[in-house]
């Protein structure tokens, strides 16, 4: 699939765009709307492309499965991360949950738990990045 055509494959195509831009006036309603938008993103076949685009160009709304606050944390983590930092670690640093990381990386939650455990062991032993 060509990079220019990924939007045509998006799961949100045909969904009311307002779903991805919740109003901040009613917190319980916002949480429900964010969950509904993320549910669409969760099954999207081009989520990675959308997230990459959102990290570069979208300051508002939900895109690539992340809220604007979550994307800010990813950008901060990316700017601090070394070039060789694995994607799962950048997602962890950005505050993503183990199930979210597992889904994004195509592995089980148990695998993510192992990665995190190894990272902690390396930090404790002084071999890892203390972030």
What do you see in this structure?
With 131 residues, the protein is mainly α. It is 55% helix and 0% strand. α5 (98-105) crosses α6 (109-125). The chain is globular. The termini are far apart.
* Strand element count: 0
Q: Structural class, from secondary structure content?
A: mainly alpha
Task: Report the total helices.
Answer: 6
The helix content is 40-55%
- Uncertain runs are none
What would the principal axes of the Cα set say about the shape? globular
Series of H and E elements: HHHHHH
Largest sheet: none
> Whole-number average pLDDT?
83
Approximately how much beta-strand content do the residues carry? under 5%
Q: What is the terminal-to-terminal distance?
A: 36 Å
The rounded Rg comes to: 16 Å
Which helices and strands appear, and what pairs or packs with what?
Layout: H1 27-42, H2 47-57, H3 68-80, H4 87-93, H5 98-105, H6 109-125
Helix pairs in contact: 4-5, 5-6
Summarize the structure.
The chain is mainly α. Helix content is 55%, strand content 0%. α4 packs antiparallel against α5 and α5 packs across α6.
List the main descriptive attributes of the protein structure presented here.
single chain; 131 residues; mainly alpha; globular
